[in-house]
User: Which sequence fits this backbone?
């Protein structure tokens, strides 16, 4: 057994499963309703996690499991922490006990958003909301476990295997003549298939620690939405607005651009620009 993939029913997990399968890499995947090469596993159950990793003895654990509802986390921080923090710690403890590499996905939300240049892996963190705090907790518990780890922070994920901003804008612009999208939040969109490939590739490298991976260049949500509508050819005008016009329970980082150049060097390739990924994705949505 080469790999265990947790959260394989999510957007990123599905992409990673496709990559591992296409490369004939023996792997098992967690799922609520297990099928072939799948099994049920609650990562918040420490005894079950330790027992399963001891039984399977994989080379690597890819953790795609996460509590990702940013707004609801403000009310359910304890639940988010159980999954994003202590559930991750269980994987790390099991990885340490069996000398298994843990590849874990984290987020730009661990930063304050008050920067004016791309965040690097070693920069000071300062999450502004519950989701970011629970994801940072997971990072800290991995590090303190003593296991071999590769933590990959990413942002603004979109792709064909799950609900995402690009698909939402595509659908809304089909029936609306105008959309208002915030233009004061900056980040880097990430194409899920590229992130999954990065996970698979970096796991073969001897470098450990924290990494950043996104598709460049930096943009705002308004920039991203406008590109989607242009590629779709929909008769819809996208207008910029400020975040104050769309108040949300959780504060979003004004600046969450992640510097990924060192990760590109390690994996040996640079992903396509997000504009190219959007064009490809929108073409598929139109078909």
Assistant:
């Amino acid at each position: 057994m080469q790999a265990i993939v947790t959260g394989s029913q999510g957007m990123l997990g599905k992409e990673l499963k496709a990559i591992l399968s296409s490369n004939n890499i023996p792997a098992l995947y967690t799922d609520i309703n297990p099928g072939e090469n799948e099994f049920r596993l609650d990562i918040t159950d420490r005894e079950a996690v330790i027992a399963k990793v001891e039984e399977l003895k994989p080379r690597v654990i890819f953790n795609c499991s996460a509590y990702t509802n940013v707004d609801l986390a403000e009310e359910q921080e304890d639940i988010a922490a159980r999954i994003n923090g202590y559930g991750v710690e269980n994987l790390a403890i099991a990885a340490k006990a069996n000398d298994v590499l843990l590849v874990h996905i984290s987020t730009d939300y661990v930063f304050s958003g008050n920067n004016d240049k791309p965040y690097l892996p070693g920069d000071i963190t300062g999450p502004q909301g519950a989701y970011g705090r629970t994801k940072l907790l997971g990072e800290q518990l991995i590090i303190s476990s003593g296991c071999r780890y590769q933590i990959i922070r990413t942002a603004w994920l979109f792709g064909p295997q799950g609900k995402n901003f690009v698909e939402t804008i595509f659908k809304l612009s089909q029936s609306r003549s105008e959309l208002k999208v915030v233009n004061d939040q900056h980040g880097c969109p990430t194409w899920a298939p590229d992130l999954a490939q990065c996970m698979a590739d970096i796991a073969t490298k001897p470098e450990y620690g924290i990494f950043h991976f996104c598709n460049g260049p930096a943009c705002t949500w308004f920039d991203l939405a406008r590109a989607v509508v242009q590629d779709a050819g929909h008769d819809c005008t996208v207008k910029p607005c400020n975040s104050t016009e769309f108040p949300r329970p959780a504060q979003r980082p004004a600046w969450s651009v992640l510097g990924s150049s060192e990760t590109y060097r390690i994996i040996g390739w640079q992903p396509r620009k997000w504009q190219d990924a959007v064009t490809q994705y929108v073409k598929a949505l139109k078909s």
User: Anything to note?
Assistant: The first helix runs from residue 11 to 22.
